[in-house]
């Protein structure tokens, strides 16, 4: 069950990464220079309330030191790259290894 959930989350993150990369490519062609949208800008444009909720949760429920060096660094990275890494991590969590001996062993 958890494997299925991680695979679905991986698919959703991959679709969002493709959309972010497509938007960056369109903006890059229009501007005639590379344009990489930071995750904070993309997240604020799509859902400003949720980014405020996540920031409040990290600062109050977890540890405030996590917000400043870690979360702000991640939010400054390109959205498509962060979403691709997130998709890979979800895929790895939901991956089922094949048996070492093979399919037809006793």
Features of this protein?
single chain; mainly alpha; 106 residues
Quaternary arrangement of the chains shown? single chain
Structural class: mainly alpha
- What is the global morphology? flat
The strand count comes to 0
Number of helices: 5
H and E string: HHHHH
End-to-end Cα distance, whole Å, is 27 Å
Low-confidence stretches: none
Our Rg estimate from Cα atoms comes to 18 Å
Rounded average pLDDT:
90
- Helix fraction, binned, reads over 70%
Fraction of residues in β-strands: under 5%
Tally of structural domains: 2
Major sheet description:
none
Describe the protein in words:
With 106 residues, the protein is mainly α. The protein has 2 domains: 1-34 and 79-96; 38-77, no CATH class. The chain has helices spanning 2-31, 39-46, 48-60, 64-76, 79-93. Helix 1 packs antiparallel against helix 5 (79-93) and helix 2 (39-46) crosses helix 3 (48-60). The mean pLDDT is 90.
List the helices and strands and how they pair.
Elements: H1 2-31, H2 39-46, H3 48-60, H4 64-76, H5 79-93
Helix pairs in contact: 1-5, 2-3, 3-4
Q: Brief overview, please?
A:
75% of the residues lie in helices and 0% in strands.
């Amino acid at each position: 069950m958890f494997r299925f959930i991680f695979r679905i989350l991986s698919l959703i993150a991959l679709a969002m990464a493709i959309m972010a990369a497509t938007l960056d490519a369109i903006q890059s062609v229009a501007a005639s220079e590379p344009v990489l949208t930071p995750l904070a800008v993309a997240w604020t444009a799509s859902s400003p309330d949720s980014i405020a909720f996540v920031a409040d949760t990290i600062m109050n429920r977890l540890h405030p030191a996590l917000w400043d060096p870690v979360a702000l660094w991640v939010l400054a990275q390109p959205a498509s790259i962060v979403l691709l890494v997130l998709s890979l991590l979800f895929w790895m969590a939901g991956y089922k290894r094949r048996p070492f001996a093979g399919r037809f062993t006793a």
